What we know:
A: 2 domains, globular, B: mainly alpha, Multiple-sugar transport system permease YteP (chain B), transport (chain B), transmembrane (chain B), MetI-like (chain B)
Amino acid sequence: MHQDNTIGSRIFDYANYLFLFLVSLAAILPFMYVVISSFSTEAALIPTQFTTAAYNYIFTTSTFVRSLGVSVYITLFGTMINLVFTSLMAYSLAHKHLAGRRVILLMVVFTMLFNGGMIPTYFIVKATGLMNTMWALMIPNAISAFYLIILKNFFQSIPDELKESARMDGAHELGILLRIVIPLSLPAMAAFGLFYAVGLWNQYFSAVLYINSPEKWPVQVLLRQVVILSQGSIGDSGEIASDTVLYGEGIKMAVIVISTVPILLVYPFLQKHFAKGVLLGSVKG
Amino acid sequence: MSMSSLAQAKTEKKLPNLTLKRKPLTLQLWKDRWLYLFLLPGLLYFIVFKYFPMWGVLMSFQNYQPHLGFWNSSWVGTQHFERFFSEPTFWMLSRNTLYIALLDLVVFFPATIILALLLNEIRREMFKRWVQTLVYVPHFLSWVVVVGISYILLTTEGGVVNELIAWLGFEKIPFLMSSDWFRPLIILQMLWKDAGWGTIIFLAALAGVNPQLYEAARIDGANRWRLLWHITLPTIRSVIVILLILRLGNFLDLGFEQIFLMVNAMNREVGEVFDTYVYTVGIRQGQFSYSAAVGLFKSVVGLILVFFANMMAKKYGEEGIF
């Protein structure tokens, strides 16, 4: 793009390459260190003696395996809820003639600017009977207003003629959604599914807020108990479960690695989607 | 959402009042019954989990007691607000929140722009893609993992950073237990996790610049610096403004999970922000109405900030978000 070949320009280029190289190194080095150390007998960036002792141990603890199960469950089931709720609402709102559509859209947008805050929401979750159930980790965030609006815009871009002709042929509204609109928006649906799933897997604070029984903790909460609180830091000691004993460094690292693996597995797919700009195309509603 | 859509919403609401339109409207509603049915779960979700809590903030004017419920708790006016504003905690929380939010605005935000501009100067596509692939990864890690890695690296009991400091002959630094290191650590974690991700939107805008503009400027004798100043930056100016507005809207609830995880007894005096305080006082100590009042104060200030930022953007000739 730039054919500027002055010395200053070249020096800038070399410095720029070097700088960005260092930036990308810094982005992955801390995690690499944790991964490599978790497989070694001592903390190191260059693998010393290879061992899977830490992994063997954590997979024998019922606490860890159980919370991994909880996380998998809420991620899979929660993503389904997210997608069903979001796409149904987005599909209705994509019909410009719908009476009341503008009011509802304004209502949705307003939730992005203002919210009741932690305490009133806490009492609503309590009043709806979701407290201390896994539903509390899925339902209170069932729809992201942001994704909803982008998906609505995406649905709107599908030509009306397609839907009209299906209606002429006597297709049911649900059939149009399932057979025409969703198949045509599969890339967008996949992208939102992945982003929702990452959010569910990574969610931590909702569990602290709404889940009291340690056996329903997702893996992120356990991770905090193991890695952050056992460091001799002063946390909320009341939250420490009786069966999380003191773990060694290797075990902490192994727990971090295991709880990150799912994210790294879907990362290539995530990257494909956000690289395409699916999520950016319509940031301006 | 523009103001015109607001106006349209109003006219649409009036339509049912016109007697002439009544019959077609009910017909239309019946025709759209399936669409309304599809709308129902989502609408219920927004009403129950977003709008009920907004109405529930009224409890900050009450002496809310869970066993009495919302309807039977006594009303106390602005008592909780008066108490909050007269306490020294209020100034501590404001100072801490503003400090971190300002660090975000003057360090993190410009860093994403600079990183995007530097990436944009790279000519080798292969190299650029690799850098992008690597710097986006940390965005997808949870805050627990990021803080956990920080703990592993920085602890004074065998953390690699402190081992290095000791090896170089210096005294170990208790990064995690020190109020001096709290803010630098917070901003460093933010940069590590999200600076790369923050470049995406700028890069998307930069990809849309017409190459002929650069061509023409070069013929006129512009050097790289001039191209950056007169072509590249003006193209992303509106994106910068929009992101700035959106950031101001979240000005006060920045990085709650991160701060919650990083705060401990040793750094609480600089680390406690509005949200962590609401949690401590509300959920842990059970002062529900008082903490709801603190939360409401924060939300209202946030809302004012968005409108203010949007107004400023329009004043300086940008579009704004509504």
